[in-house]
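Archive entry: two folds, one per protein. Generate the first.
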Amino acid sequence: MIKGQSKASESKLLLLSQEEADRRLAKLRAAMHGLGMEYGLITGNSNKYYLTGRVFLGSILVTPSSITYYVRRPVELEGENVVYFRKPEDISVDFPSIALELDELSYNQVIRLTKVFHDDRPGNLSAALRITRAVKTAEEIGMIEGSGVLQDSVYRKIPGLYEQGMSDIELQIEIERASRLEGCLGQFRISGDSMELFMGNVLAGDNADSPSPYDFAMGGAGIDPSIPVGADGTLIKRGMSVMVDVNGNYTGYMTDMTRVFRAGKVSELAEKAHRTSIDIHRLLQSAAKPGTLASDLYNMALELVRERDLESYYMGHRQHAGFIGHGVGIEINELPVIAPRSKDIVAKHNVIALEPKFVIPGTGAVGIENTYVVEGDGMRCVTHAPEEMIDLF
């Protein structure tokens, strides 16, 4: 049961307040209208959670004047406009067109639903939903701030979790345990192309330079080819950096935070790169005002990196990531994207994870990641663990 939730409320489909649900629905309708869509069917878990506060098996049908919750499981959910059904063909409607989550659905699901709605050229509702969710409500920001407090608590415990002779995976297991005991839900929700990762990334030494098949800022070989990312069993030795980027989902809305720990003294180049990462954060924190082009933020950061002659190490060494920041919320990769060809424009109450990082051969990964809320005069940080490199020994 959710903290503070009565058993009676468990039967209610809508776990958001009616006022909050109405706010989110109004935002979605506005985004749909702007893209020429009036009728949409929502089937993805993240988007059902966004509109109701819960995940259920079924769909949500949105029209200009109504919302209907079609439910298969769990049984006994109650509320206005809740309709139980067995299969999509039970949805009896007649619309001139329909928009579907084309970024979420399989080809076979799309074909089936186009037959149900008699529309063989459905609109892409995923685009409207991503636009809608990019600007957070006050309630969403509060949940993100709550995750930030708990993630910060875990990161401050990490030096005490390390024991001499540990490998990266052994340290990660201890961090994961501390995270779960603090209330971490363990789930990374990811939009679009499959990026598989368990609980997060702990990268020791040169494993940070192992290329990943995913567009992550940092890679790592992993401990098995089935999940080729992250810790690989490297023994933590003097002179290495240990980058920690683990799960910040404590409330259904996540924060994204990276910190670097060092095993004794690291190279001057690593120290310089880490300082540059922090400086990029301060630069973009004040520059990222509503109306700013995301691509301009990327270029401002790159200019500073070039001034300090660090470009070959930036966002990877053997393989480079194509972004330095991304929206975050229910999913780890929301809008806006801070990238060189991004067409996104920063808006008030975007929540952005900024992660300018470097890989220094012979040392490992350095640089920090923070989660920020965009306000009228720049970005406000909600992840507050110490930013300087922290000694393990």
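Generate the second and append.
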Amino acid sequence: MSDASINASTIREDEASFGDYFALLKPRVMSLVVFTALVGLLAAPVGVHPLIGFAAILFIAIGGGASGALNMWYDADIDRVMKRTKSRPVPAGKVQAGEALALGLALSGFSVVMLALATNIAAGAMLAFTIFFYVVIYTMWLKRSTPQNIVIGGAAGAFPPVIGWIAATGTMSVEPWLMFALTFMWTPPHFWALALFMRSDYDDAGVPMLTVTHGRRATRIHILVYTVLLAVLALGTAFSGIGGPVYLSVSLVLNALFLHGAWKISWRDEADSESDNFQVERAFFKLSLLYLFLHFGAILAEAVLKVYGLGGWA
């Protein structure tokens, strides 16, 4: 085989695949964005044409993916250090940082303009603000500067149901902000649980997560406090315009489990955690994923039941 053939073969093997570019969009995070935005859109008190609804969710998803690509572009330096993120396309060398930046910017502009055209300008503006908040406020500023990074920055992941609601109605009301608050208050205990058993990653990368700046003991107490506040909010939402008996039943069970898990975490010491490789913390983290999904699923169920005159407290 000639040298030219060998070089060509090597270049082809090093070229990024479609899967590498898709991974830039953080598909797992995007799935949460899509689901919560869909619930926000369907829970709105107005009907939406299926084609417009599909377009709205598609462009919100693309906007969420654009945020992920821009996050990976900016965070490539710390992603290379962390075990959890070192295999991402940019730190792994599969995609160049400039390509991630270009893709993120292009998809950001495309998603915002198309959402505004498909639904209304207010929805497009809210999507633009969400992308800005996640990339600039959270990724570039909060993440590297304060242990409150995930508390304030969690707002970025809480906006999708608001965008979905505005896409359907063109207006604001208290209900989408209750969905926003549910995700916003859920984010800290969710990520702090992860930080408890991934502390070395954040320590090595110099990210001032609460476990790094204040230690695991303080983080455990924070998880319990935020879980109590979250439970009050989640149960109170049952008596709002998006709640009802189905939501209340689901929320009672989930919050009982979540509070129990947070209480168990709050009493554990380092020896307990290290002896079983943080099994309680890992279980709480997995439960947190189910917690948010089922709460939004219950909101969606109430919305569907209302179509048939069965949902809510009426």
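Annotation attached to the second fold: Residues 1-13 have pLDDT under 50 and may be disordered. The first helix runs from residue 3 to 14.
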